[in-house]
Amino acid sequence: xxxxxxxxxxxxxxxxxxxxxxxxxxxxxxxxxxxxxxxxxxxxxxxxxxxxxxxxxxxxxxxxxxxxxxxxxxxxxxxxxxxxxxxxxxxxxxxxxxxxxxxxxxxxxxxxxxxxxxxxxxxxxxxxxxxxxxxxxxxxxxxxxxx
Length: 147
What we know:
The chain is α+β, with helices and mostly antiparallel strands. The protein has helices at about 25-40, 85-90, 135-145, and strands at about 40-45, 50-55, 60-65, 70-75, 75-80, 95-100, 105, 110-115, 120-125, 130-135.
């Protein structure tokens, strides 16, 4: 695949153009990554009525609690006004993975995975917290990230 930068002083607006012989899953994923890179570098959150904006890479985990969506950033809990399924599509797949219907974690924030005696997958986080991954999502994680 060739990558080129064309500088044109007459250009009014920068654009990214990808020419492909046919549409494939690889190129669909590439387009999603480019759009995310260009559009979504920060996430707006709130805590106690105050608004904050964080770099997406600073987010440790995203989870639902009592029908609200929260994220953890450096040990602090913030509310997000997006739904978990929206965040699953928004967050970069090379940095985050969904471990259950209600939780998405930053892969750099995971200490280790462990199979519990009951057959559930424990996800031990770097802050010492323990959460659980569903079998369905664990299968997907193994398939996509631990090839």
